[in-house]
Design goal:
Blueprint (H helix, E strand, L loop, with lengths): L3 H18 L3 H12 L4 H7 L6 H40 L19 H15 L3 E2 L5 E3 H4 L24 E3 L5 H9 L4 E10 L10 E11 L4 H16 L5 E8 L2 E10 L23 E10 L1 H4 L13 E8 H9 L6 H4 L2 H4 L5
Parallel strand pairs: 1-4
Antiparallel strand pairs: 2-3, 4-5, 5-9, 6-7, 7-8, 8-9
Helix pairs in contact: 1-4, 2-4, 3-4, 5-8, 5-10
The structure holds phenylalanine.
Phenylalanine binds next to β8 and β9.
């Protein structure tokens, strides 16, 4: 066994050369296992010292420990050097090229056309002194019909095809039930607009089972039909342009008397009825007027349901109006089919980015 120290010297020379050549931390780790790990010859030698002849133990043990310490020192030094190289290489190679284009911007969404239109309408009426309030979509027959002067079994209930949930409860067919609810909640004077969803059993290019309305109600002393006309003219001009005019035609609703249908002068043909090329205007169908809403003076019979809240029909009176928010949006933006509003086809929606 006299050649063991020489053998260890051989291992040391081989290991030191390999360590000096290791190019990466992973390679170095392999060498550490190979030369100083549990199964390495050096480690085995140290473990079996006890089995040697007594006079061998000292020299072999000493030689093995010297080699072990030398290798550990070389491994540590090489590891430090490699870390330094890798850091330098990283700094050199992984530089950020600030001239490269960044990630493409994420497409930002925007409000739905109906929401944009509702907000625009609300803003106009807030500017005229109205407050915005909302009410329930699931409504009592009482507020939707009875308190709006539809007697039981009156054929007017059939004017609007209703989704009934029970005999007493339904999906509101218009925002008008909020007239009576609001008057119950607050004494006169009252100036409110009520946007919201309404429901009717109807479905074609201009009717969907759900659509949106905006109701208006003004009750005070000395309110006349001229006030209604003035408010609607201001609205029409803010919404469709300063040149617009409005026209009131006689109409019928159970809860207003007199009732009117309101038209706005056509903004596609400047109220001529025909276009620059002489063809008939498609928007107003050549009539120069477009119907936009129903309105009227609140029927004293309706106030009769809220006299307890201070609405004495002998002392106060007012006007109400109701219009389709979706319809206003369609007219303003030339949308040909109401159903487009609710199909949420992105190709349609993205045309109305704000
Ligand atoms: N509620 C009516 C409708 O939906 C519109 C309207 C409201 C008419 C207020 C007069 C007064 O057709």
């Amino acid at each position: 066994m006299a050649d063991v120290p020489a053998r260890l010297e051989g291992i040391r020379a081989e290991a030191e050369a390999a360590i000096a050549n290791a190019g990466t931390a992973a390679e170095l780790e392999e060498l550490r296992v190979l030369y100083t790990g549990r199964r390495a010859e050096l480690t085995q030698t140290l473990r079996s010292i006890g089995e040697l002849a007594p006079d061998q133990r000292g020299p072999v043990g000493k030689a093995a420990n010297v080699v072990k310490q030398a290798l550990e020192a070389k491994l540590a030094k090489r590891s430090e050097a490699l870390e330094g190289y890798e850091l330098e290489r990283g700094l050199a190679e992984d530089t950020v090229d600030v001239t490269l284009p960044g990630d493409p911007p994420r497409p930002a969404g925007h409000l739905h056309l109906v929401t944009q239109t509702r907000r625009e309408m609300e803003d106009i009426f807030v500017g005229l002194g109205f407050k915005v309030v909302e009410g329930p979509e699931v409504e009592f027959d009482y507020y939707n019909f009875t308190a709006l002067n539809h007697p039981p079994d009156h054929p007017a209930r059939m004017l609007q095809d209703t989704f009934y949930l029970s005999e007493e409860v339904l999906l509101r067919t218009h925002t008008s039930p909020m007239q009576v609810r609001s008057m119950e909640a607050q004494e006169p004077p009252i100036y409110i607009v009520v946007p919201g969803r309404v429901y009717r059993r109807d479905s074609d290019a201009t009717h969907t089972p759900m659509f949106h309305q905006l109701e208006g109600l003004a009750i005070d002393e000395d309110i006349t039909l001229a006030d209604l006309r003035g408010v609607l003219l201001s609205f029409a001009r803010a919404m469709f342009g300063p040149e617009r005019e409005v026209r009131l035609r006689s109409g019928y609703f159970p809860f207003t008397e007199p009732s009117v249908e309101v038209d706005v002068s056509c903004f596609a043909c400047e109220a001529r009825g025909y276009l620059a090329d002489g063809s008939r205007c498609g928007l107003c169908k050549g009539t120069a007027w477009i119907e936009i809403l129903g309105a009227g003076m609140v029927d004293p019979n309706v106030l009769g349901f809220v006299t307890d809240s201070g609405y004495d029909p002998e002392r106060v009176q007012g006007f109400a109006f109701g219009m389709g928010i979706d319809r206003i949006a369609m007219l303003k933006h030339g949308v040909p089919d109401l159903r487009l509003m609710f199909e949420n086809d992105i190709r349609f929606l993205e045309q109305f980015g704000s």
